[in-house]
Specification:
Blueprint: H1 5-14, E1 31-34, E2 37-41, H2 54-67, H3 82-95, E3 99-103, H4 106-117, E4 123-127, H5 132-140, E5 144-148, H6 153-159, E6 165-170, H7 182-192, E7 195-199, H8 214-217, E8 227-231, E9 241-245, H9 247-256, H10 258-261, H11 268-282, H12 285-305, E10 316-322, H13 324-336, E11 339-340, E12 342-344, E13 354-359, H14 366-380
Parallel strand pairs: 2-11, 4-5, 4-6, 6-7, 7-8
Antiparallel strand pairs: 1-2, 3-9, 8-9, 10-13, 12-13
């Protein structure tokens, strides 16, 4: 046999890292249902509780009635409709971007940018904790990849060569919840004549004025960032992603980004619904304030319990356990108590940093936070 699949699966199982999917019997909400059991959900990226909002379901339905179920072709054939153009214009106006391009997933968007831009005479500078979509594309690129220590601007500066390529970072890091120092990144890019790309999948909708994201939250002007990517499947409650930047950049990607050129476009109904979601998100100051109050309450509670939790003012609150098997055991104990909290293990996170990735949403209530803290105290007392 040319592929020894079972050996690889057996090894992963021995390491306690074997993964299996869980079948939900409900949509994304404060509570979810699995195996006929209901759980309080602390594992969703639906940060504003938008995915189950009736108005958004209605927008999908309206989009389906107007545009049908599928796009039918790639965007360069007949798959690009007025619904897509309207979403691009809405995003550009909201975020202060010259132009925008839509993708079916954030993974695809990141792959498209890196593969299209970086050639063998370029250098890419990536944060060590960047998302797998960025690091995988970087490793497959002909460009040399230099990885700098997480959020370490001194280390990055020591690596940078003038006008050599692209600095790449997340805005909010998906597994740690902390933020990149975007102002310093922009300064270093400008000083060395390099470009800067920010993946703001977990900041968009949650942080900043009108939910404009990490850059707005840190008072960084959009024109200081050459490439901005974010997704619709987190705070916006739908699915898909975009890349934004100059008109020239978007024209280049339309012509050279193979992930865009050779993929069937996202359904028009999806684009239509996402436009409706953005209009709601821009006005959702009350939901963002409520979410921040939950984050503050949770962090105060874990501090009182003396738990090992990194600095994060976002909805992502990782409780570092260390050992992968122990993290799984704690997650399972929480499930017996009616709480769904995901254990994140290597290779998603570095070895020795297995964790409970606790995510809070605006759908939660203060009583939910109190219950979570109490159950964490009980479950961790048996470790």
């Amino acid at each position: 046999m040319p592929f020894d699949l079972q050996t690889a699966l057996d090894e992963r199982a021995r390491e306690g890292l074997f993964r299996q999917r869980q079948i939900l019997q409900s949509g994304q909400n404060r509570f979810i249902k699995l195996n006929d059991q209901t759980y309080l959900n602390f594992s969703s990226n639906d940060y504003l509780g938008l995915a189950s909002q009736p108005f958004l379901t209605k927008a999908w339905q309206e989009g389906l009635e107007r545009w049908g179920a599928g796009s039918g072709a790639s965007p360069l054939v007949t798959g690009y409709t007025q619904a897509h153009a309207d979403l691009e214009q809405t995003l550009a106006e909201w975020l202060g971007l010259e132009a925008v391009l839509l993708f079916s997933t954030g993974f695809s968007a990141n792959q498209a940018v890196i593969k299209a831009l970086l050639q063998k005479d370029h250098i890419q500078y990536q944060d060590r904790l960047n998302h797998a979509s960025l690091q995988e594309a970087g490793s497959q690129s002909p460009a040399k990849m230099q990885r700098f220590r997480h959020n370490d601007m001194v280390h990055l500066e020591s690596l940078l060569q003038p006008q050599s390529g692209l600095i790449i970072s997340e805005g909010v890091f998906s597994m740690d919840g902390d933020q990149a120092p975007c102002q310093q990144l922009a300064d270093l890019a400008a000083q060395t004549g390099n470009w800067l790309m920010i993946d703001d999948a977990h900041g968009l909708g949650v942080l900043g004025q009108q939910g404009q994201g990490t850059l707005s939250h840190q008072n960084v002007s959009s024109d200081r960032i050459n490439i901005r990517m974010a997704t619709f499947g987190k705070a916006l409650g739908t699915a898909g992603a975009f890349v934004g930047g100059s008109r020239q950049l978007i024209d280049y990607l339309i012509n050279f980004a193979r992930d865009y050129v050779y993929s069937t476009h996202m359904p028009s109904a999806q684009a239509y619904a996402t436009t409706a979601a953005i209009k709601w998100v821009r006005q959702a100051d009350a939901e963002r304030a409520h979410l921040q109050s939950l984050i503050s309450a949770f962090r105060a509670g874990v501090a009182d319990l003396g738990l090992n939790i990194p600095e994060s003012e976002t909805a992502i609150q990782p409780l570092i356990i260390g050992d992968a098997e122990q993290a799984m055991n704690i997650a399972n104990r929480l499930r017996t108590r009616g709480l769904w909290v995901s254990a994140i293990r290597p290779p998603t996170v570095p070895k020795g940093t297995a964790r409970l990735r606790i995510t809070l949403t605006a759908a939660h209530q203060q009583a939910d936070i109190a219950l979570l803290l109490n159950e964490l105290k009980e479950c961790l007392s048996h470790v």
